[in-house]
Amino acid sequence: MATNGSQNIVTAATGKILQGAGVGTAPSYSTATYPTTASSAGKILRADGTNWAATTATYPDTAGTSGNVLTSDGTNWVSSAPAAGTNLFSSIGTFTGNPFDGLTYYFVQNSAFTVNTAFTIQGIYLIPYACTITKAYGQFTIAGTLGSSENCTLFLRVNNTTNTNISTTIQLTSATVSVNNTGLSISLSAGDTLVWGFTGPTWATNPTTVNFYGTFST
After folding, report:
1. Does the pLDDT at position 218 exceed 60?
2. pLDDT of residue 167
3. Is 110 helix (H, G, I), strand (E, B) or coil?
4. Which of 40, 141, 149, 158 is the most exposed place for a label (fewest CB within 10 A)?
5. Which pLDDT score is estimated for 148?
């Protein structure tokens, strides 16, 4: 059997590999270079824009439990269960009502702003898993008389025991009044309940035909 001597093999820069160029065409070397040895376990080849090099991070050899996702542990990629509670989002919208002085109202979806002056199960959100509420946004619209400039309070109530204020300085003096709080830290467990609440002041002029739309999220 005839063999070619090393002198017949065209040389190339370190790391380039010999590739077929098609039947009947002499092979040629790659433009990109490749590592000459395998790196530590778990690394993959990744283009750096010029050549192929082993990644710094490692990747798992097995997929792990069904439903797992690739998650960074700060150094490498690992197969992990998806984090729970990262995307809880709920909203509510009321019909209009005419709030009286000094009363607290608990909101119920598609019910009048002023229908409940006591906690009611119809207005609760039942929390499905442990999470932390970090943001809440609300908007009041007033289609009737604008209120005077006394402050109102909007809050979220957990398990009918603990209130966290979204704002204590709401003034219903415009046709649209927006409020938000992106610095919340309401820790909840699976099965906890959450309800929106509002406490009005003693107004010099009471607002009329008021409704509310609100959202909260983790």
Report:
1. yes
2. 98
3. coil
4. 40
5. 98
Instruction: Quote the mean pLDDT of the chain.
Output: 90
Backbone torsions φ then ψ of 159, nearest 5 degrees: 55, 30
Q: Where along the chain do the CATH 2.60.120 domains lie?
A: 89-217
Domain at 89-217: CATH code: 2.60.120
SS (H, E, C) 42-67: CCCEEECCCCEEECCCCCCCCCCCCC
In the block, tokens 């376990």 appear at 41
Quote the tokens at residue 128.
């499905």
Task: Encode pLDDT of 129-150 as tens digits.
Answer: 888 999 999 999 999 999 999 9
Residues 6+ apart with CB under 8 A from 26: none
pLDDT of residue 85: 44
d(CA 98, CA 205): 12
Q: What angle do CA 20, 22, 27 make, to 5 degrees?
A: 35
**Cβ-contact 133, 215 below 8 angstroms:** no
